[in-house]
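Input (structure):
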């Protein structure tokens, strides 16, 4: 007798990972070169590239008045 357990979140994650691996294998088998480029992998996995600021802006930068700067208002 087989006991079935309820599906868990990890089941959905595992299935999604298997599907992504399958997509990569299909793309790799159709590729002309020896390996997929990073851009092609991103395309297959539908990766969206988002550029972010590398520094944290100061509060005064958002206000534009220099009030958040300890040195006083900007000239």
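Output (sequence):
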């Amino acid at each position: 007798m087989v006991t079935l357990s309820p599906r868990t979140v990890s089941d959905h994650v595992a299935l999604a990972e298997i599907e992504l691996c399958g997509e990569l294998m299909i793309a790799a088998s159709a590729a002309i070169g020896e390996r997929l480029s990073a851009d092609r992998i991103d395309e297959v996995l539908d990766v969206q590239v988002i550029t972010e600021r590398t520094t944290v802006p100061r509060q005064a930068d958002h206000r534009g008045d220099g009030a958040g700067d300890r040195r006083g208002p900007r000239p």
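Notes: Residues 10-54 form one domain. Residues 9-30 form the longest helix (22 residues).
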